[in-house]
Design goal:
Helices cover 71% and strands 0% of the residues. It has 13 helices and no strands.
Length: 295
């Protein structure tokens, strides 16, 4: 039997306007987003005298890392001069339980709404959609009054509870869409075998949830870590997160303004979200493609 004759693919033109336009856009976007980071890093390694010369794009003539140690442990945040170190550990104490709680509750809610379909499903789903788009500022006063009446305002449990409440609608929608995209036959087979609500969730759904768990962890960790408003209002003076301490360092001035210390503190504050995206970026894309935003 004669095999069909295969012709070689035509060579791609050297100058493809569409391809070069995409490359130009990606390059310009990379420069746009990386330029501020480069300026912060370069400034943090310069001395104050070199910074005053005004060459913000120039590399430091002599590498000086003293601004980093000062930003971490000696910079003044108001009357206290203990650096940004305390805010870092406060942020860790806030982020870890808030992320775990919001993801756990959102996963169970999304699983129930996607597969068990309670009677008030449509009403509950509409409330969640509405809650996802309500600005924080609208709910600040009721939450302040409620937490004050409960006697927890300005405490660590208060800020953890607030972040968990604000994270639940988005996490529920993410997990609901993800579980809704899984084969329904797996759920029906488990029901036929006699598995109940929690057994199906723990033995069937949860092992398949790694992509969406990574997406949810990245979103919650970076969102809570970068938060300023909620931490300023609800954390209290002894639990202020790193972003609030950074604002205090930049706003506190005794004598000359130490731009190198400010830049070092800024990079230290943003280091964890940057590290998470660099390490887990591909997992984030896989989780999104696996159904995280499918309706």
């Amino acid at each position: 039997m004669n095999q069909p004759r295969r012709y070689p693919a035509p060579p791609k033109p050297l100058f493809d306007p569409g391809r070069w336009a995409v490359y130009a856009f990606l390059l310009s976007a990379a420069v746009f987003f990386l330029l501020p980071l480069y300026i912060m890093l370069a400034t943090s390694f310069k001395s104050v005298a070199e910074i005053r010369q005004g060459a913000i794009f120039a590399l430091p003539g002599v590498l000086d890392a003293s601004a980093w140690s000062e930003a971490w442990s000696k910079a003044c945040t108001g009357l206290s001069c203990n650096g940004i170190r305390g805010g870092f550990w406060n942020s860790v104490a806030i982020v870890v339980p808030s992320t775990l709680l919001s993801i756990a509750i959102g996963a169970v809610n999304g699983y129930a709404l996607a597969l068990w379909r309670p009677r008030a499903f449509e009403w509950m789903f509409g409330v969640l959609m509405l809650a996802s788009f309500v600005p924080y500022q609208v709910l600040l006063y009721p939450l302040v009054r409620g937490s004050a009446m409960a006697g927890i305002f300005g405490t660590l449990p208060n800020i953890i509870l607030v972040h968990t409440i604000f994270g639940m609608p988005t996490m529920t929608l993410l997990f609901r869409n993800y579980y809704g995209s899984l084969p329904l036959e797996l759920f029906k087979a488990a029901r036929i075998d006699g598995a109940g609500f929690w057994r199906i969730f723990g033995l069937v759904m949860l092992p398949m949830s790694l992509p969406i768990l990574v997406v949810a962890t990245i979103m919650q960790t970076t969102g809570i870590w970068n938060d300023f408003l909620l931490g300023l209002v609800f954390a209290g003076r002894s639990n202020q997160p790193m972003t609030v301490e950074l604002n205090n360092i930049i706003a506190t001035t005794f004598g000359e303004v130490k731009y190198n210390v400010n830049m070092a503190a800024t990079v230290l504050t943003s280091m964890l979200p940057l590290a998470i995206y660099f390490v887990s970026g591909r997992w984030f894309v896989r989780g999104i493609a696996a159904g995280a935003v499918k309706g």
